[in-house]
Write a structure and sequence with these properties.
Layout (H helix, E strand, L loop, with lengths): L17 E7 L5 E3 L9 H9 L6 E8 L4 E4 L1 H15 L4 H10 L2 H5 L7
Antiparallel strand pairs: 1-2, 1-3, 3-4
Helix pairs in contact: 2-3
Length: 116
């Protein structure tokens, strides 16, 4: 047995990209929100953000351990939410703040009329 062997943290060896939201918990500070592995996909993350499941989302992190990468997906997620909300013509205050924080300032200023 090799000494430097480390067990895989990839569930069942599946190649999957996971998305985790960093939420601001006020005086406790920012932390990853508790997320079930089965609900860490992009669609569920976007749906949860749009439905207000997070009190103060500040960042979305995507990672894929099989492919050995992790990245800040906040801007991409905010743009997808923006696209969906443009179709519905409605923004929540928290989604507006997430978008404003993670996308270029000029575009965010154009969205102030969308807040619900």
């Amino acid at each position: 047995m090799r000494r430097n062997w480390t067990p895989s943290i990839v569930p069942n060896g599946h190649d999957q990209t996971f998305y985790l939201v960093i939420n601001n918990y006020g005086t406790l500070g920012p932390a990853f929100a508790e997320t079930d592995v089965g609900e860490a996909d992009l669609e569920t993350t976007i749906t949860d953000l749009m439905s207000g499941q997070y009190s103060d989302p500040v960042r979305v992190v995507a990672f894929n351990t099989s492919e050995h990468w992790a990245e800040d997906a906040s801007e991409d997620v905010a743009r997808e939410i923006m696209r969906r909300l443009d179709l519905r013509d409605r923004w929540s205050r928290d989604i507006h703040r997430l978008h404003r924080t993670n996308t270029p300032r000029a575009r965010a200023d154009d969205l102030s009329g969308y807040c619900a």
